[in-house]
Amino acid sequence: MDLDLNDSELYLAHNAPIRLRRAKGVRVTCTKGLLWLTVEGEAGDIFLAPGDSYLIRGRGLGLLEAVGTGRARLQRAQRRLSGQWARRLPGCARWKWSWALASV
Q1: 28 closest CA partner among 2, 8, 58, 42
Q2: Using CA atoms in the order 16, 63, 79, 76, what is the torsion angle rounded to 10 degrees?
Q3: Distance of CA 62 to the CA centre of its chain
């Protein structure tokens, strides 16, 4: 089963882990119960209580499971522009408008 990692809420059962593939940049938020998250290549396991969240940074397989029953919200973190591009965008906008005005 493929999950939509952009904006999903999962109802998790005890001892039924969910595989999270290609989950780098996904924020896991616990909305109910206690969640257990482990990600290949990241040190240690993560336990989340209601209101806690964790941003997956590794590229390895993630396993998400409830201790008892629980709920998790998955949201893809918004990507930021690198500093180089963020600095260039205002200049591009000025160039576009100066070019448009010059051609009138």
Answers
A1: 8
A2: 0
A3: 12
- Say how far apart CA 42 and CA 83 lie, in whole Å: 26
Which tokens belong to 83? 């500093």
**Tokens 């924020």, residue located:** 27
Tell me the three state secondary structure of residue 40: coil
- Nearest to 20, CA basis, from 34, 37, 33: 37
Taking the domains of the chain in order of start, what are their residue ranges?
7-76
DSSP letter for 96, please. H
Q: What is the pLDDT of residues 48-94, one digit of tens each?
A: 999 999 999 988 899 999 999 999 999 987 666 555 555 555 555 54
Please give the CATH superfamily to which domain 7-76 belongs: Jelly Rolls (2.60.120.10)
Query: What are the φ/ψ torsions at residue 99 (nearest 5 degrees)?
Result: -65, -40
